[in-house]
Amino acid sequence: MGTLGFWRLAQADPDWIAAVDPDGTEHRAGDLLARANRIVHGLRGLGLEPGDGICGLVPNGADGLALYLAALQAGWYYTPINWHLTGPEIAYIVDDSEAKAFFVHERHAEEGMRGAAESGISADRVFAFGRVEGARPVAELTDGQPDDAPAGRTAGATMHYTSGTTGRPKGVRRPLNGLDPDDAAELMTFLLAMFGITPGKENAHLVTSPSYHTAVTQFGGTALHMGHTLVYMDKWDAEELLRLCERYRVTNSHMVPTHFKRLLALPEEVRNRYDLSSLKWMIHAAAPCPVPVKWAMLQWWGDCVYEYYAATEGGGTIATPEAWKKHPGTVGTAWPISELLIVDDDLEPVPTGTPGTIYMKMAGVSFEYKGDRAKTEANRLKDHFTVGDIGYLDEEGFLYLCDRKADMIISGGANIYPAEIENELMVHPKVGDVAVFGIPDEEWGEQIKAVIEPAPGVPPSPELAAEILDSLKGRLSKMKWPKSIDFIEEMPREPNGKLLKRKLRAPYWEGHDRAI
Questions:
Q1: Which residue among 106, 336, 394, 409 has the highest number of C-beta atoms inside a 10 angstrom radius?
Q2: Integer Cα distance of 174 and 366 in angstroms
Q3: Which of 130, 160, 177 finishes a domain?
Q4: For 491-514, what is each residue's pLDDT tens digit?
Q5: DSSP notation for 108-162
């Protein structure tokens, strides 16, 4: 141990550009280190101790990064809050996480301050980046504090709140390991090392999604600890991604399949305009990727497209470009420190090739949903846990995802996986985005409904619906065809690409007892 970790790297080379904000502002590692140190000294002055928590409602960029680096060397839990939440939802997280300080960026001032007021956090512990009425400027906390490393440094952790398909979001809280912060950061780098990613300041990591997502923080933070420059995007834009990759010689990033679909929708001349020769490890996850979309990305970007499947709670699989080409559609094989178990409804292991609920475990990693022992236990099978996904393993141990259990459609007693249908529909050139789910059917229990966001410039019509359905001939058995297609102007997705299916599904189930 001893060569990696942001704090060590910044001391050794303070002039290294550690981060680039969305507006192009560059941040030297030494300046970022000094900021993080001053935040620690300031918050310790308020009485914060190891094990305490802080929350940040801040956009992508160096402000949030400074909070992350402060918490991770002071033994605190840092919770980045989703900036699309409303005041009461923000209040719930600030309160539930027992935050001893709350940082609000002026861009999110209105809902942030509503949240602060409702959470009951004391007003002198609410700090503002920029001008926020009713909050103390961060400068009040940090001005006059020393730049040097705080004494008694110990590793902290992030505590992300799961988006939660049912009820309130839950904080995923891991026990602190008591290690030196740089050593703990160096241990984290196993995650990127599994993809073959190497340390070194010749690398740049592009942050394409909001930093309040676990994987985004995990991959970005770990890349920083390996000496990579973090290049932040403010909001997703396909051509902007290409521009930043060329401008900063980006070597690695973390994306979702929706991003690929939007990149592939760019006109050919735009796609060919940018030099992408620096790309080495473009990693995607979070949703099943349609096989033709993945093939198209591999053809365009070459063998730098890696895939993995994992959960905030720990454990997962990885598919290298080479392995995926041999097993198209797979999300890969288990990590070296992870195990997979596929079981039926009686929690008994299923044979190879048979879909069942995916359980995972990761060596030496424990977690609990904060304050919810029952939920933690409910998702466990001995020391494996599940997030409710359905999938199967082939003879060589490659995992294929079918769908989330909650999204499965049971029609006439047959299990139908919407993701499979979505993947086939997504390939149609006139389809911009798609969601498939079950709606009530008196005779069959559920029937298959597709909601489609047409590609830009394509007007919705009954003829378009017929053309799209017709394209499924010979590719999908008739029993899996949507009974009907509705069109929507814009799909309700979170910025990380996660589809809010329950929002689409709810109106169709009004007045029905959901039998499934």
A1: 409
A2: 6
A3: 177
A4: 988 776 778 888 898 888 887 654
A5: GHHHHHHHHHHHT--GGGEEEES--TTSEEHHHHHTT---SPPSS-B--EE-PBP
